[in-house]
Design a protein that fits this description.
heterodimer, A: about 230 residues, mainly alpha, globular, B: mainly alpha, 2 domains, about 75% helix, about 0% strand, AzlD domain-containing protein (chain B)
Chain lengths: ~230, ~120
């Protein structure tokens, strides 16, 4: 069995990622519910989850699509949210350097916050692992759960009364990710500034509030870093 | 977000999906494609990237919790802000996505279905 795809390293990735599903499942359900809320059909919702496969950007894009924001703002906002992937790509690239181009292209497609964080920690701790198998075990599990969760969210979301306010789960998901992201003084300053500016700028035309808030936060974070030195 | 759905025209949605998808895959592939040729990300790229997650997430969250009202009291006494604040404490103490969602929704439902029933 050791030569097959389904060997120990792949399963180790599947096993290690499974506790994280507790956070991914509601996140994926909300992505499906938000798609219905924005007026998308099942094909479009699943198309987004397969082609974009990045939760935070999907939810922001859906919110803006539902609010009839200009296409440039929808895309620009999602792109700003996902630019962090460059950071993950750079950090994990040395571990994949020995693999062929096609395999690397495939591994890149399933790169997510969770797969990245889990894999890099494991690669450092356990150098004997088949890295691509471990990573793929974790990343592909996340992919499958994300797609299934989206479909269930679309089906369930359509039948839930508005009064339940299920879309409120969207900011709650982000809140759960935001709190650990504010881990020191500059990152906290970035978060506080971005949030405050986004609230004040919420009335800006073209739904530019999010973009303006995020960029302000990044600038304040950099300033806080300089001041702290 | 309530009332009749402002159905997003399908072509517009698909264009958005494709553009976001292509850009996102480009970000994911970027350095993995350049493989080991670059050992370290240039600091000029790395430094601002560090602040993208907290800034983007906060800019996403806060406007959904806070709507500036005519007075301070009207702004603060909002079911979403109170539910969000309680959920924020849960997120801080547990760092658990599921617990944060459960408590936040619970508090919201308390306001909607119990407190004013």
């Amino acid at each position: 069995m050791s030569d097959s795809l389904l060997d120990g390293d792949l399963w180790a990735g599947v096993r290690d990622v499974s506790p994280l599903m507790l956070g991914i499942v509601p996140f994926a359900l909300v992505a499906g519910i938000a798609a219905v809320d924005a007026g998308l059909g099942l094909a479009e919702a699943v198309g987004m989850s397969v082609i974009v496969f990045a939760g935070a950007s999907q939810l922001a894009a859906l919110d803006l699509l539902g609010a009839d924001a200009p296409l440039a703002v929808v895309v620009g906002t999602a792109v700003v949210i996902n630019v962090r992937m460059v950071m993950y790509s750079a950090s994990i690239a040395p571990y994949f350097a020995e693999y062929g181009r096609r395999l690397r292209a495939g591994l890149a497609y399933v790169l997510t916050d969770q797969a990245y964080a889990l894999s890099v920690a494991e690669f450092d701790e356990n150098p004997d692992r088949s890295r691509w198998r471990y990573y793929l075990g974790a990343a592909a599990s996340l992919w499958v759960v994300w797609q299934v969760g989206t479909v269930v969210g679309v089906v369930v979301g359509a039948g839930v009364p508005d009064a339940w306010g299920l879309t409120f789960a969207v900011p709650l998901v982000f809140l759960a990710l935001l709190v650990p992201a504010m881990k020191d003084r500059p990152t906290t300053a970035a978060g506080v500034a971005a949030g405050a500016v986004a609230v004040v700028a919420a009335g800006l035309p073209l739904n530019l509030g999010l973009l303006v808030g995020a960029v302000s936060g990044i600038v304040v974070g950099l300033l806080a870093e300089v001041v702290g030195e | 977000m309530t009332g009749a759905l402002p159905a997003a025209p399908s072509v517009r949605v698909w264009i958005a999906i494709l553009l976001i998808g292509v850009a996102t895959y480009g970000f994911r592939l970027s350095f993995i494609h350049l493989f080991g040729r670059i050992d370290e990300v240039p600091a000029a790229i790395k430094r601002p990237l560090r602040y993208v997650p907290p800034a983007v997430l906060a800019a996403l969250v806060l406007p959904d919790l806070v709507t500036l009202g005519p007075s301070v009291a009207a702004t603060l006494l909002d079911e979403r802000l109170i539910a969000g604040a309680v959920a924020g404490v849960v997120a801080w103490r547990t760092e658990n996505v599921f617990a944060t969602i459960a408590v936040g929704m619970g508090v919201l439902w308390l306001f909607r279905f119990v407190a004013f029933a």
